[in-house]
Amino acid sequence: MAENREIQRAQLKDKIATAISIVEYEVSDMMGHVSARSPEGDRFLLRHIRPPIDPRVPEDDVLEFDLTGKRLSGLREAGGSGFEIYFFTGPYNANKQTGAVIHCHPPMALALVAAGQKVVGITHRHKFDEVPVVPWVYGSLPEHGEIVTQALQHCCAVIIESHGAVITGETLEEACVNTIQLERTAKMILLAGALGPVKPVARDAVQKFESLVEVRQTKSGQALAEWRYYERLVKRGERWSRL
Ligand SMILES: [Zn+2]
Fold this sequence. Notes:
alpha+beta
């Protein structure tokens, strides 16, 4: 049993490394963190997107926290007034189904919001109608974490004005694909919005699509297919075309 847990943990660390490669390339930003609930369920693993400042700390060092935000293991710099731990503890505590949380600073989504626009789903694969936006907050303050957690009640993502985004999923694969979709959708809206009003995808079209393509496993299933595509390229050291 304990051995199984160790295998699961090693697999999760590998998955976090892959998610970091995907998010770093897609979002074009080295700031942020990728996290996933550990196999035990009552703690989570977290890794910075950027490498450690201290050269003595291995680049693949992963931190582990309990659900209060107390660090259990890991070497690299974290903690203190600058560490946005409440963007992670909030969503994990609020919903047991939340298996992964990503915090990053997607420039296109932030540009759209800075212009007073919203990210809305515009294809049948988008898992959000309208991504909620909250005023600027910082995740090292518990009350700011609460604001973000509240906004995540009805959506897999929230955009924080003049700061970044927090994106969740039932699995790390799903949270990673949701992050890609959030930023790509923002780009599409920025492009389309220059030509005229942007038409959101109709909710009944999304429902019809989901009924046609066995999205029973959906949330995870759909994300998994996309995840596998990018994971394969990451493992081969290849890149892909970004929108
Ligand atoms: Zn941040």
